[in-house]
Amino acid sequence: MRSVLTLISNPQTRKLSVEDLDAVRRAVPEAGAPAWLSDDVACDLLVDIDPAELHAIEAAARAALDGLPIDIIAQGTSHRRKALLIADMDSTVIEQECIDELAAEAGIGAHVADITERAMRGELAFEPALRERVKLLEGLPEAKLEQVFETRITLSPGIRTVTDTMRLDGGYCALVSGGFTFFTARVAVTAGFDTNRANILEMKDGHLTGTVADPILGRAAKLESLQQLAAEHSLAIESTMAVGDGANDLAMIEAAGIGVAYHAKPVVAQAAPARLDHTDLTSLLYIQGYARDEFAGQ
Question: pLDDT tens across 86-111, in order?
Answer without folding.
Answer: 999 999 999 999 999 999 999 999 99
